[in-house]
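Q: Structure for this?
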Amino acid sequence: MRPYRLLYPMRTYLVVAGRGEEANVMAADWVTIVSAEPFMVGVAVAPERYTWGLIKKHREFVISVPDLEMLDDVWIVGTRHGPSKLRETSIELVPSKAIETPSIGNALANLECRLVDERTYGDHTWFVGEVVGSSYRRDAFSGDSPRLEAGFLAHASWTDFVTFEEKIHRPS
Ligand code: FMN
C-alpha cells in the first residue's frame, strides 16, 4: 500500500496546458481549492510530465472536470506522454474566455488559471493558479450545487473509478 492511497477516493480532473499544436492534456487527482477570494486552485504536477514544461513556459493552465463518459479519454491522457495522444481521444479543445490555453468543450466545467506561484515539494511541483475565467455545462450544475446525475468522476484506486450516488445524506 502506497501511503498516499490512504487519501483515496479522490476526484479526477484534467489539466490542459500549452496552445495550438502544442496543447496537451493530462489527468490529475492532486488538485484542490487554495483560496475562495480571490479564487485560486493548486495542482501537483511531476516534472517528467510534458504538461509541467508547458505550464512553466506559458504560465497558464486549465483545470477541467471530466464526466464518466470521458473515462476512456481520461485514461489515455493519464497514461500517455505529449500532445499526439489527443488524436486518440474525443477531447474537444475549444477557446477559453480569459486565457490562451484552451478549455475542453465536452467537460462538465473548466477553470482558466493564470499561474501565480509554484514550489517543488519532493517529486511534484505545486502550481497555484488564480482562476480568471470559467465555463460549465448547464446540465451539470443547478444554482451552487452539482447535479450528481451528470456523472462526476472519482478515482478509487489505480484502474478503478466511481461516480456519485444520487442519494443525499444530511447531518441531523
Ligand atoms: N500526474 C501528476 O503529476 N499529478 C497528478 O495529480 C496525477 N494524477 C493522475 C490521476 C489519474 C487518474 C491518472 C491516470 C494519472 C495521473 N497522473 C498524475 C499521471 C499523469 O496524468 C500522466 O503521467 C500523464 O501521462 C502525463 O501526461 P503528459 O506527459 O502528456 O503531461
